[in-house]
Amino acid sequence: METDDAGRLRPRERIIKTARELFRRHGMRGIGVDAIAEQAGTNKMTLYRHFGSKDDLIVACLRDVAAENDQIWIDLETAYPGDPLAQLHAWLRVGAECAVGDSRGCDMANAAVELAEADHPARHVIEEFKTAHRNRLAKLCRDAGIVKADLLADSLWLLLEGARVSGQSVGATGPGAHLISIGEAMIAAFARRTPPERKAPKRAAVSA
């Protein structure tokens, strides 16, 4: 987020940061722009100068969430350069930290539940983010040499999504506590699979 010369967050970034905190605490429907502006140390006029509507602010907050998640992928590549299998295992550990350590769940998934209208501008951001994240996971599985990469990616994706919901309902000691061990077993099972051997084509008889 951008800061001014004194290192303080600029009004736009301060509003986004505050809105994200309040949305997580009260829900997107449960907090108004007046409360967000006041908590951010500004006023409604300034808020509307940066964001034309509350929906525009919600979209900006979700794009901020997406940018943070993009950084996770960059960090994985930096930590394990040229080792996609190690990156895959690290992705699982990072996912477990989010699922078990954050009782509020996934910001994108929570927004999808609250903003049920098909034409809400945030729906596109949510779908775009979730699809891109899943596709990056599938690519990572392919790069790691997994034969059924898409199937493993979908399995791990559903495991993580389910663990985050489980954490919201029964807490960190519920089934989500076993996320890493389940995920590791899934990766190991898929990694052991090799493509079926292809029979060598029969050679045509050569006439003398």
Classified by CATH, the class of the largest domain is Mainly Alpha
**Rg (C-alpha, Å):** 22 Å
CATH architecture of the largest domain: Orthogonal Bundle
Described by the principal axes of the CA atoms, the overall outline is: elongated
Mean of all residue-level pLDDT scores: 87
> Kindly, what is the distance between the CA atoms of the first and last residues, rounded to a whole number of angstroms?
78 Å
What's the main sheet like? none
SSE-based structural type: mainly alpha
- Roughly what fraction of the amino acids lie in strands? under 5%
Task: Spell out the key features of this protein.
about 210 residues, mainly alpha, Tetracycline Repressor, domain 2, Arc Repressor Mutant, subunit A, single chain, 9 helices, about 0% strand
Overview of the structural elements:
By secondary structure, this protein is mainly alpha-helical. The protein has 2 domains: 1-52, Arc Repressor Mutant, subunit A (Orthogonal Bundle), CATH 1.10.10; 61-192, Orthogonal Bundle (Tetracycline Repressor, domain 2), CATH 1.10.357. The protein is built from 9 helices and no strands. The protein has helices at 11-26, 33-39, 44-50, 54-79, 84-101, 107-114, 121-143, 149-170, 179-191. α5 (84-101) packs parallel to α8 (149-170). The chain is elongated and about 60 Å long. The termini are far apart. 24% of the residues are buried. Mean pLDDT is 87; it is low at 194-208.
